[in-house]
Amino acid sequence: MPFSFQNLTSGVTLSCIAAVVLCNLLILLMIRAGVLDHPVARSSHTRPTPKGGGIGIVGAFILCLPPALYEAHASMRIVPAITGLLVGMILLGTVSWLDDVRPFPARYKLAAQFVAAIAAAIGTGATLPEMIPFVLAAVFITNALNFIDGINGLASGVMAISALLLASTGLMPVAFVLLAVCLLSFLPYNFPKARIFMGDVGSQPIGLAIAWGGMTGFGTGSGLLVIALLSGVLWDVTFTLARRARAGDRLAQAHRGHLYQLAVRSGLPVPLVTCLYWGFALWGAAAFATGQIITMVLMIALPQLAWTGYVCTRAKTRVQDRW
User: Helices (H), strands (E): how many in the chain?
Assistant: First the structure.
């Protein structure tokens, strides 16, 4: 799956302009609505900030995708895959927004994630043996991107980069260019200073869309590419879960122990940490482009191990409370 600028430009449609306008309007509407995220002990922010910016991203994407596909004369063969994705995103977005407004038990959110992932996987035409790993991977990726959405611009930037690079391989370029356009429209509202947060209503459906890209082109290597692009996120979440499990902590309990959170708590600037995770996504693409699995693994693993060691060393001396 070579990267190509031509593939990227083939996904550009007039509907992208409509998506920019609609995304901005919905985000401004959510800022005015004033549904606030109040800081708590585990929060990285210190003042109440509007949330629900993901409604602008996801809403613009869902509404503009059908006309974009029509404009690009997309093949009817992709209709089942697109339908499965949109059904999954709408379901997950609805449940996530309800949870953003009035939180409810995690088991209901997890159930919605599985149902949404199944809908997305069915649309790709996956066989039953393929469905199980696809769905499990999609749920993990969805949660990982939700967990990583804790400082300004990190999750939205990583997902925008991932969407652009997936499109550049020729994988559903119309869909992934449009998704990147919506994410990039949101980014100025959230980075470097946040006027609004994306919220679960954004991170979870978009996480599902990125995972769906891995399912859709799995036979051509897109699954491996998604893992490479999200390597920084996936490593952070996996390492944190393993560390907390070893310490006997409840894994479902909210915390501030992710590597990116420890880096900020130890004194590193938020924009620096965010840009570093964007760099991990680009580095993952470079590692994938080598075409050699061992080289790719080494290129991804070594920086992650170095980052982990650096952050943990800083945290031991600079973070006073338990982590």
Answer: 14, 2
Handedness of CA 4, 24, 64, 136 (dihedral sign): positive
Q: Please check if 146 is assigned to a binding site.
A: yes
- Residue 72 CA: distances (Å) to CA of 9, 67, 68, 142, 243: 12, 9, 6, 28, 47
Q: What beta strand segments (E) does 57-166 contain?
A: none
The confidence band for 190, taking pLDDT boundaries of 50, 70 and 90, is very high
d(CA 97, CA 28): 17
Task: Kindly state the DSSP code that residue 267 receives in the 8-state scheme.
Answer: T
Confidence of residue 255 (pLDDT cuts 50, 70, 90): confident
Displacement of CA 78 from its chain's centroid (Å): 23
Is it the case that residue 196 has pLDDT exceeding 80?
yes
- Of 221, 211, 209, which is closest to residue 289 (Cα–Cα)? 221
Q: Break the chain into its structural domains and give their ranges.
A: 5-318
How much is the pTM?
Answer: 0.94
Pair of tokens at residue 93: 């977005």
Return phi, psi of residue 249, to 5°. -80, 155
Could you tell me the CA-to-CA distances from 54 to 30, 50, 155, 180 in Å, in that order? Answer: 9, 11, 11, 13
Dihedral sign computed on CA atoms, order 153, 156, 159, 165: negative
Nearest to 262 by CA among 321, 306, 303, 304: 321
Yes or no: say if 60 and 186 are a contact pair by the CB < 8 Å rule. Answer: no
Q: 200: annotated binding-site residue?
A: yes
